[in-house]
Design goal:
single chain, 106 residues, mainly beta, five-stranded mixed beta sheet, two-stranded antiparallel ribbon, 2 helices, 7 strands
């Protein structure tokens, strides 16, 4: 799943699924998008962060790790914080997923 967070705080979901092993159906209930960091906006910096996340049986995100980021370190913190607040429909086994979040000025 790709998400675009623009400087005005909107998001767009783009088509591209990345659930692990086909066992986890990422039925999101809530996926708050990360805010665009004011320092990055002021510097006109754009970028992407790829994260892997783990979802518990209850549907809450229990772990988030950054797999890659460009530029490194600029958007990591806001992305991890946002993904930790995502909620999914409960499932018997939980699961994991991977997503790319793109920060683009508009």
């Amino acid at each position: 799943q790709r998400i675009v967070a623009d400087a005005r705080g909107r998001k767009k979901a783009a088509s591209a699924a990345a659930a692990s092993g086909g066992k986890f159906s990422p039925n999101a209930i809530s996926r708050p998008h990360p805010p665009y960091p004011s320092s990055a906006r002021a510097s006109r910096v754009e970028g992407t962060v790829v994260v892997r996340y783990t979802v518990s049986q209850s549907g809450s995100v229990t772990g988030v790790s950054v797999l890659s980021a460009s530029p490194p370190g600029v958007f990591n913190s806001v992305t991890v914080s946002a993904v930790r607040n995502w909620r999914f429909r409960p499932s018997a086994s939980g699961g994991s997923g991977m997503t790319t979040i793109r920060f683009k000025l508009r």
